[in-house]
Amino acid sequence: MSAATHLPGSCRICRVARLVVLGAAALVFLMPYLWMLSTSLKPQSEVFASSLSLIPDHWSFLVNYGKALSRVPMGRILVNGTVVCVTIVAFQIVFALPAAYALAKLKFRGRELLFGSVILGLLVPIHALSIPLYAAAKALDLINTLAILVIPFVLSVFAIFQFRQAIKSIPDDLIQAARMDGMSELGICWRVVLPNIWPAATSFAVFSVVAHWNDLYWPSVVITKTELATPPLGLLFFRAAEAGDDYGALMAATVIATLPLILLFLFAQKAFIEGVTSSGLKG
Amino acid sequence: MAEAGAATSRARTSEVRVRQEEYAGWRLSAPVMLLVIVLLIAPTIAVFGLSLTDAELGSSEWHFIGVSNYSDLAGDRTFRISIWNTARFVLLVAPASVALGLGLALLIESSVELKGFFRSAFFLPVVSLTVAMASVWQYLMHPTIGPINQMFRLVGLPAINWLSSSDWVLTGLAVIGIWQATGFAMVLFLAGLTAIDPQLYQAAEIDGAKSPLDRFRLVTWPMLGPTTLFVTTVTMINALKVFETVYTLTEGGPAKASEVLLWTIFKQGFTYLQIGSASAMAVVFIVVLLVLVVLQTRVLDRRVHYS
């Protein structure tokens, strides 16, 4: 029996009321997306005509999206975002998995100390450390490179923490059997442990992509060149280049920058919700 | 004799095994240990260290000045406004999004129709690019052509300068913050709700809890205690980190009315290049986060316990 039967909603009126209330709330929550799409298709004159109509009288798709793609190198910016996010996730998993396995299944001196620093890492956000990290990046001549967008994030204490939890539930016998077969500890990590914690790994990957695709703070500290911008920073550059209130073009640019993640979300909703939920933190 | 030999060899194998494990543990976690030192511990120490100096970016000269930066912060008007605004923002966003998130989760979980659609609809803002959606909200909240004020006008309400008047700017930003945080609180509550044992509801019904409100009061709310505490803390921490919308829409203005902690640190460090005092602000930020997390763990240990 599910909890559903015990909560309000067993009567017909209650069910209709639930749909009405949730439907109205969903409309409010989705309103920004409707207006974003609608405005991105409207010519300047209609945007300023202050009508509440969502359907444009004259379609201005090409003009607005043309501007959005030409004022800043939007394609390049999307590629930057993708490259940065994918590289970050790959490094995070490569570093975190062996350490998480060691923390969960191996006894060694320094284990408690390592776990303690993982907890410290969970508490201190990048924003607080950005000043010394910036100074170091500058000293190493890494300002305005894609590498510096990746480097501070290759260590993910979230990944270590979550993977450790997941690995703990793998039976010791399974690992022992792999050792008997002559597998190395690193081999066990990738060929036994990873397949067994796949759900945790995918939900972490999704969480990480959402966080880094959205991050504005660090990119705006280390990147000043438009062609190296990630999507949030690219949008800021677009806003700066776009004097006045050309909302049609601005909305077209926001559609382009938002769409990749929304499409990914619609295809992999379960992993998204689990990823963001299990981390407990966004950004 | 043979048995004793076997025992010794077993002991020796297990000793070898222990040593191997020790070695493997170190080898597997060595890269992370190195990264922890370089990317976490060293910068943390550096922030504390810098906060005791008058260092400036681009200048190689700096002096140790003790806790002067901290005492200066106490008297710094901008910093005080910033702390006050951040606190107000957190208190506007966190309670509203936790309450809305709980309400939506309860409604969604109470029946099966369109469950998946609603969950996705309310979650969508969580995965949308904040800078992009901030631009959309800027248009929605535009004083003259914005749809929100037009709707207000239709029902006879006065137009509001959501983002450009110092009286309203924090409320405007909070509306965006609530819009983004609610779906997040909702999915955490949904996870908490499905974890409640249905037998508890049956037991409550047998004990006479007939109305939905009784069942909520007797079972759902107390069982959700730990979830609620967790959601509240996480929502507060996320609200404390408000930055994207401020950077995109207001840059702390008008007249410092939307000056918030991360924006102040960002400007002090990377615009005014005063990394000494910016580090002191960052330390204050870390301390506030620590206090929130410690409070959460304390309450969780003491009060919200059912086992």
Protein model, in words:
- The complex is a heterodimer of chains A (283) and B (307).
- By secondary structure, chain A is mostly helical.
- Chain A is built from 15 helices and no strands.
- Chain A has one domain (73-279): MetI-like (MetI-like fold, Orthogonal Bundle).
- Chain A is globular and about 75 Å long.
- Chain B has a single domain, classed as Orthogonal Bundle (MetI-like fold).
- Chain B has helices spanning 2-50, 68-75, 77-109, 115-127, 130-140, 147-154, 169-194, 198-206, 212-223, 225-240, 244-250, 261-270, 275-302.
- In chain B, helix 3 (77-109) packs antiparallel against helix 10 (225-240) and helix 4 crosses helix 7 (169-194).
- The mean pLDDT of chain B is 87.
**What distance separates the N and C termini of chain B?**
53 Å
Oligomer description: heterodimer
Percent of residues in helices of chain A comes to over 70%
Strand content of chain B: under 5%
Q: Uncertain runs of chain A with pLDDT below 50, 5 residues or more?
A: 1-9
Shape of chain B: flat
Per the CATH scheme, the topology name of chain A is MetI-like fold
Q: How are the secondary structure elements laid out?
A:
The complex is a heterodimer of chains A (283) and B (307).
Chain A: H1 12-40, H2 44-48, H3 61-71, H4 74-105, H5 111-123, H6 126-139, H7 146-150, H8 157-168, H9 172-180, H10 185-196, H11 198-214, H12 217-222, H13 231-241, H14 247-267, H15 269-279
Chain B: H1 2-50, H2 68-75, H3 77-109, H4 115-127, H5 130-140, H6 147-154, H7 169-194, H8 198-206, H9 212-223, H10 225-240, H11 244-250, H12 261-270, H13 275-302
Helix pairs in contact in B: 1-13, 3-7, 3-10, 4-7, 5-11, 7-10, 10-13, 12-13
